[in-house]
Design a protein that fits this description.
This protein has helices spanning about 15-25, 30-45, 100-115, 125-140, 170, 185-190, 205-210, 210-235, 240-260, 265-275, and strands at about 5-15, 60-70, 85-95, 120, 165. It is of the alpha/beta class. The chain has one domain: 2-Layer Sandwich (Nucleotidyltransferase, domain 5). It is globular, with a radius of gyration of 19 Å.
């Protein structure tokens, strides 16, 4: 049974130095000292392998998404296989640039509780969702819809339940049987723009300068990348037909063009996408 809603999501985060101060008993230390101490701590607990902060120590500053309706494909769109088509409804970000973390996370889980969408992410099981769950607990939030396991094998917490959450990093690597590639690598191989100047490492600096809207814009281009990669995956699997694939691609092109004047980053993405198209 296919879900009625598709929700491709991505988050952007910055270190939570207040949580770091509590962990390391550094109540009065400035952020730069806490940053160094947190990295040293993570190097220590990973035997020198990695200074990347564990999930509880990140603060969510943006949640972006591509929303689609999942519809039964019409007769013309089932030629060559495929049962469904994805109809684009919106590319956006939760809340506003001034929204606090609690509001963003509450909105995310409320949407899941209300719509029960099929989730799509890239590395969402390893990073995005664990961060969202820890931070929801920080704020005392509740998300019963997400944790409903009344169907033991088909639910959001079941790693292999692709119809509930398709983490492309996992599915494309056969859950680690082959190399787990980066989103930018997979996108560029398929003439999808991938990163356009801004990268995840830039987010903390942008946030420190109060440039939250730029973070949201960057996150939106990342979810478009993820959605376009997902369409290729669905075409490969035969979930959608070549006709449905082309219809979804054309909808995204038209959407980006229509949003260009109000949201220039979407126009820039479209221009880069067109420039990469095979001649």
């Amino acid at each position: 049974m296919h879900k009625k809603h598709l929700f491709v999501f991505d988050i952007e985060t910055v270190p939570d130095y207040d949580a770091g101060r509590r962990l390391l008993d550094m109540p009065d230390a400035p952020d730069d000292e806490v940053d160094l101490a947190l990295k040293a701590y993570h190097l220590e607990v990973t035997d020198g392998r990695n200074d990347f902060l564990r999930q509880p120590f990140w603060k969510v500053v943006a949640i972006s998404y591509v929303q689609c309706q999942v519809e039964k494909a019409d007769e013309a769109q089932t030629q060559g296989g495929g049962r469904v088509r994805y109809t684009l409804t919106r590319v956006g970000s939760g809340g506003e640039a001034g929204s606090d973390e609690k509001e963003l996370i509450e909105g995310f889980f409320h949407y899941i509780d209300q719509k029960a969408p099929r989730l799509v992410s890239f590395n969402g099981r390893t990073f995005d969702l664990p961060v969202l769950k820890y931070r929801a607990m920080v704020h005392g939030l509740s998300a019963p819809g997400f944790f409903d396991t009344s169907n033991k094998w088909e639910n959001y917490t079941q790693r292999y339940a692709d119809a509930w959450h398709a983490d492309l990093l996992e599915t494309l690597s056969d859950f680690g049987a082959s190399a787990r590639v980066k989103l930018n690598e997979a996108c560029r191989a398929m003439s999808i723009p991938g990163k356009l100047g801004t990268a995840g490492d830039d987010v903390s600096g942008l946030y420190a300068e109060g440039r939250v809207q730029e973070i949201r814009d960057y996150c939106e281009t990342d979810v478009i990348n993820t959605y376009l990669l997902f369409l290729r995956w669905e075409l490969l699997r035969g979930t959608i037909s070549p006709a449905s694939f082309e219809a979804s691609i054309n909808e995204m092109v038209n959407y980006l063009e229509s949003e260009r004047s109000e949201r220039p980053h979407l126009g820039e993405f479209l221009d880069a996408w067109r420039a990469m198209a095979p001649s």
